[in-house]
């Protein structure tokens, strides 16, 4: 019952969900700080503080959504209904974030606080249940690894599509309307429509199968107590936060790196294609492409060496490549792009492992306590994601302010050095922390195999 093999259509359908989430998330990570400073006209340090304040509340909101999902009863299951209910609000509020009302600085900041906070809450309401869905689609550990890989492949495809489309869309609508602000609004609106459609597809094509050993509503106090005693959960939470700090600082500083350090506003002609991209877009798109390469190679590597060893190796390599990145000159375009490919391949490989490990932790918790809190445990994955982006995004804004960044001006050497550090040394600190955490992770493949067998025997006995 719980170990049936999933059809390819359902795996693709599950991937649609993260494709939708990632299209917006990548635009937020790569362009939102830039939009707020260079288009909306807000100070970088003020935006960094906004990221910190709003995301702290939103991070605490994730476990609330996880608890709601665990206690939801519907004909569609526990977690799938949230994809249906919140797909449209996700698209609408995401678009509102890129509207630029003609307020003063204080009014603009209030508007940014309001729309950004609402967006992150809606993101929780759809993405925490989506993540939890992985834990109830199949009880088979290998199927979950495959599902996790499908999820991440589609996530990076979504990011790839968003990065390919956003600048041309903004340019097209800017030229059509004569307004850069309107160009951003309409460009993001197109992406928002795609996000809504993909969430609907995920809802329609997936199915919940795994039932708890005992189908009862346990007290929230017991669920939280079990979670706080779950050592693997704490370890994975720390590793995930550190990995997201690594990613978010690199992503948030990339546009600034090319605009103010490389200072190349030209286009790159793509061989064999009648198309050209800005150097910034090419850098970002290559990152997404090699994220996908990392996902493809990680499944056979993790099956052979285990998730923990594979994760450690990927993060160690990312550390070395990130440090080397600092020493590149602005003219070394080829080396910049090559290192972007290598770092992105390492970064892409770890996220399927993290999601699969969270599913393992949900099983471990049920095996140890007799109670299953899939939503609460998976909410920590979203929590770590947002908290990592919170720290990384806030640090990016603060660091720009600290080094004296002024939007749309020639930057001093200190500012340029600070931007270079944000693409190299500072992210490397995150990878080192992630390695330290994951080195302590105790759930290896042999342990999980035993846990899965025992849980299936208990579920069969109670069916």
Entry keywords:
mainly alpha, globular, single chain, 2 strands, 463 residues, two-stranded antiparallel sheet, Growth Hormone, Chain: A
Topology:
Elements: H1 8-39, H2 44-70, H3 80-96, H4 105-137, H5 141-177, H6 180-205, H7 220-228, H8 231-262, E1 267-269, E2 276-278, H9 279-305, H10 307-325, H11 333-369, H12 374-402, H13 413-422, H14 425-438, H15 445-462
Antiparallel strand pairs: 1-2
Summarize the structure.
The protein has 463 residues and is mainly α. It has 15 helices and two strands.
Structure description:
With 463 residues, the chain is mostly helical. The chain has a single domain (9-462), classed as MFS general substrate transporter like domains (Growth Hormone, Chain: A, Up-down Bundle). The chain contains 15 helices and 2 strands. The protein has helices spanning 8-39, 44-70, 80-96, 105-137, 141-177, 180-205, 220-228, 231-262, 279-305, 307-325, 333-369, 374-402, 413-422, 425-438, 445-462; strands at residues 267-269, 276-278. A two-stranded antiparallel sheet has the order 1-2. β1 (267-269) and β2 (276-278) form a beta hairpin. The longest helix is centred in the middle third of the chain and has 37 residues, at 141-177. The protein is globular, with a radius of gyration of 22 Å. The model has no long low-confidence stretch (mean pLDDT 85).
